[in-house]
## 1
Amino acid sequence: MDWPQPDPEAGRGSILFASGRGDFIEKYLEAYGHWHSRGWNVTSFDWRGQGDSRGDIIGGHLDSFDPLVDDLDALVSEWLGATSGPHILIGHSMGGHLVMRLLAERDPKIDAAILVAPMIGINGKPVPQPLSAKVAKFLSLLGLRRRKAWKDNERPTLPGASRQRLLTHCAERYEDELWWKGKEPGYALGPPSWGWLDSAFRSITRLTPDIIRRIRIPILILGTERDRLVSPEAIERAAQTLERAELLMFSDAAHELLREADPVRTQALTRIDAFLDEHAR
């Protein structure tokens, strides 16, 4: 998806948005509209295996995250040559993880980046991440790589936490996602496979402190202390490791900060706008 400004000469620059696991372009139309109204050209895409990029890939499974890094690298290279700067990458959840890997491993000529609830660690509490990683690897080695890790939702329902409560406190925005999945049934990716989890844990181990320190551009990280999908502690550690990072942690918000109830969503977008005003002029 490319949403350019009507007058290219009057635009502020270009944003490329990388969404999370199981997401699709239409899910973030509201956020794209906000940035477009502020003068940005906006580009987004569906990761391979998701949205309208499914092809013959079995939903919810990946053998490695490396092809996704290659995909993002190729897309960013094309986007840099076709759009006006400054150039901003915004990544949510899995997209934030892959944006961080791209910045650390490939060093594209990006002016600034924003990571929203990035998957720098997986929150499997009460099971510690090292044990969860060993289980996923063991079951993958047993030949269960393509088997769904659980029966329904994005992860097993936790006590007092429905799928909606894990993602957003806004019932209307959650219903919007379900509406799109009703219109396009293939968008409903379902739970990940054991192989996807194994691949995710292996990819996370690539983001060592030494690797993260390679990233020198300004980065804004938004997270929530109550995130039940990604690790808030890993987000905070990464922010402390990065040379030019700014961090905003919400005390009472779910995973999808850009699709949260208006008090949280507005604060998140306001902080993003201020960061862009300072670092992308």
## 2
Amino acid sequence: MWQVWLFVQEGFFHIVSLDSLDHLLFLLALVAIYTIKDWKKLLIMATAFTIAHAIALMCSIFNLLLIPNEIIEWLIALTIFYTCIENLFLPNFKSAKVYSVGVFGFIHGIGFSQVLRSLFTRMNYNPWQTLLPFNLGVELGQLLVLALFLLIITFSTKIEILRPKLRNQLISIPVAMMSFYWLIQRNIF
């Protein structure tokens, strides 16, 4: 049972840690165009992300998919940049966003698989005691982060500090700049 709890914690802290700044910025960019009324859409997107994340982890753990870490880290930066650009130039294109979030979850999952693989090598691997609890922790962490971001956005909207378009710009532009910096820094070409 301790192993299950350990992996729930690992998944949770994988998301909420500042070591996962790229993931936190992805979640912030994701929520930039939504309001509290859109909580169901965000829940569906977070779940799609986690399912794709779990599939990617499983593929990577079982050596079904091996992609060099440099390429994955660059692709993770691209997912963040793309989300910001979509927010800025296609903010009403929300209906297909769940699909891109699913693809992005797959990419982020592959990126984390190297760390998770090192955890698995130190213990007997059982997907029910490791992979499933880890992904449960990821989902819980994402929901907490999304809820916090959404509450801050809702509060700023309620007291009329930020209009939705300005809020989107104030979130998406700096996050896009950071992810663009990462694209250059992690250059694979």
